[in-house]
Design brief:
Largest interface: A-B, 25 and 16 residues
Strand content of chain A: under 5%
Shape of chain B: globular
Structural class of chain B: alpha/beta
Order of helices and strands of chain A: HHHHH
Largest sheet of chain B: 5 strands, parallel
Low-confidence stretches of chain B: none
Structural class of chain A: mainly alpha
Order of helices and strands of chain B: EHEHEHEHE
Radius of gyration of chain A: 14 Å
Mean pLDDT of chain A: 92
Oligomer: heterodimer
Helix content of chain B: 25-40%
Number of domains of chain B: 1
Low-confidence stretches of chain A: none
Number of helices of chain B: 4
Radius of gyration of chain B: 12 Å
CATH architecture of chain B: 3-Layer(aba) Sandwich
Number of strands of chain A: 0
Amino acid sequence: MDLPPQVNTEILRDLSSGDVEAMRNLIALYLRDTEQQLVKLQTAIQNNSVIEVMQLAHTCAGSSASCGVTALVPPLKQLEQLGRAGQLKDAPRLLMEAVTTFHRARVFLETLS
Amino acid sequence: MIRILIVEDNLFTARAYETKLQMEGFLADVANDGEAALQMIRQSPPDLALLDLMLPKVSGLQVLRTLRAQPEFQKLPIIVSLRHSPPCPFKRRARRVQTKCC
């Protein structure tokens, strides 16, 4: 399987100091939390809740960066900026990009755990 | 054993740091907001604190100011962790400023 360029596995390996069980737990936590955050983000966009969009996108971007899922960071940072600006016109497109990227990353991360 | 307090509101990031530090042989505690951090530090001062900037309830800057205003915590080693260039007050009060990976 080709390594998706958007997942930096070195970060995960470093965080878990090479311990397989620790890495498995971190991956499971990241996937579960991020999936929930993306669902909440969708609801927040539908409700035009700009502050919630900003906060959720910020949190999700931070988790993704910490987990090495770097490709998810740019669309989430853009969503955060849209929320801060109070203008969510492009938010559905960015959310779709984020969800697609997340599912690609999930497929890869599940092969590691 | 060296005890480190992780002050971080992002639950995944906090867990990731906690895992890393424990794997390296440190004792790690987590505070998810500035108020909890101040309370935990007063009750049982850690050997080092890793402090995020953007925190709910009490900001990282306020945590730093509050601690540095108290003689017993003026020399507590604190590493400020943030994603942007730090404003000047952090450079004066923190032992070290570390940029996150995003």
